[in-house]
Specification:
SUFU_N, SUFU-like_domain, alpha+beta, nine-stranded mixed beta sheet, single chain
Length: 381
């Protein structure tokens, strides 16, 4: 912690050892539980091994009357003082065999249960740089090192159970097929019969690693009578909520689940090559896609999937209402829900580097107005 610890280094002069470690199903966060025999602390690390969240977990010897400054000066997690503890005498070492790690559905937070009871939680809003730790069962008063878990258990308890159920569903043999058919049926209702289907496109940017969640396919809905363009839609992003939405929206339900779509007259394989980049992006980068967001292409402009070799496209604009731009009437794609959350489709519109900078400076609404005035179509050709 800076306060527990920031960064990736081990505490100075510490004999701390890792007693348990676990990676999130998305591979973007890693939980590390360490002890030096006197104190156990837990750290949530990002893909660069930097600490993004942390909490004191337990004292293992009699608590001092006041905060042990010498341990902090040595870069070690402190013994919490007796005034902050459920049991000032200290508790026995953790039995790692009794621990259960439960990642939140979004992948940005984690809970650890001991013999079935919540021991600590490091939520997505834990931020050691701002002095916001995780929540520990044995803490009774707030400090920069741990908040009392009991004070928030009414919120965390149901969330932990919901997360357990989510991962249980994901592991069930028929779970993916049921989800997939619900989305494909919805697309059939609004867009007509399917063409090609590409499975697990996000793996192309996950170094080919099997099992890196989420699984996302792409469904093609070819042009038909009354529609001169093809629609390509992801299938799988909405199966899990996106990370960090709760940091920006009081009500996560309207924003947490999305699928992406692109309307195009380009060959489908070319247009669809945009999706490996974006399919796992929110969970890989621990962020979310909101209506109006602009996303910068990570490579050279000439390699951008939706352009030609001379294209100046360098990113995409995400629109929940593409009718704000020029073009034919867009299909609504509304009405699909999952676990009580509405699934929102965001349409991809390629933008230049200058347009990306303009949106960042003036806001996406200003960019949409400018594109509309220029006659930019939401259908890519």
């Amino acid at each position: 912690m800076s306060v527990l610890r920031k960064g990736g280094a081990s505490p100075r002069g510490s004999a701390a050892k890792v007693v348990h470690a676990a990676a999130s199903p998305y591979g973007s966060r890693r939980l590390v539980i360490e002890t030096d025999g006197d104190v156990t602390a837990a750290y949530l690390k990002d893909a660069r091994d930097s600490v993004v969240g942390a909490t004191w977990v337990a004292n293992h010897r009699k608590a001092p009357r006041d905060l042990d400054q010498s341990r902090l000066d040595a870069g070690r997690p402190p013994l919490l003082p007796e005034s902050h503890l459920r049991d000032p005498a200290g508790r026995k070492a953790l039995d790692t065999e009794s621990l259960e790690v439960v990642w939140f559905e979004e992948g940005d937070g984690v809970a650890v249960l001991e013999a079935g009871d919540p021991l600590f939680v490091i939520p997505g809003w834990s931020d050691m740089g701002r002095g916001i730790p995780g929540y520990a069962r044995d803490a009774t008063r707030q400090s920069p090192f741990a908040f009392p878990l009991d004070e928030e258990i009414e919120d965390f308890g149901p969330r932990i159970e919901s997360a357990r159920e989510h991962w249980k569903r994901c592991r069930a043999d028929d779970s993916w097929a049921e989800f997939q058919q619900s989305v494909l049926g919805h697309l059939l209702q609004w867009l007509g019969p399917s063409g090609h289907y590409w499975h697990d496109v996000g793996r192309q940017l996950a170094s080919g690693r099997a099992g890196v969640a989420p699984t996302v396919g792409v469904s093609e809905r070819p042009a038909k009578d009354g529609r001169e363009f093809t629609v390509l839609s992801t299938v799988g992003m909405s199966r899990q909520r996106m990370p960090t939405v709760e940091l920006y929206e009081d009500d996560v339900a309207p924003y947490g689940r999305i699928e992406l779509a692109v309307a195009s007259t380009l060959p489908s394989q070319k247009a669809g090559s945009i999706f490996p980049w974006l399919a796992q992006y929110p969970w890989r980068s621990v962020t979310w896609f909101a209506p109006g967001d602009v996303v910068k292409w990570y490579h050279e402009a000439r390699t951008f999937p939706l352009g030609s070799g001379e294209s100046s496209w360098e990113g995409v604009l995400l629109l929940d209402d593409p009718n704000r731009l020029t073009g034919p009437e867009a299909p609504a794609l509304t009405g699909l829900t999952l676990n009580g959350d509405a699934v929102r489709w965001l349409w991809l519109v390629p933008i230049t580097g200058e347009e990306h900078r303009y949106a960042k400076s003036e806001g996406s609404d200003a960019l949409v107005r400018r594109l509309a005035q220029q006659g930019r179509s939401w259908v890519i050709s």
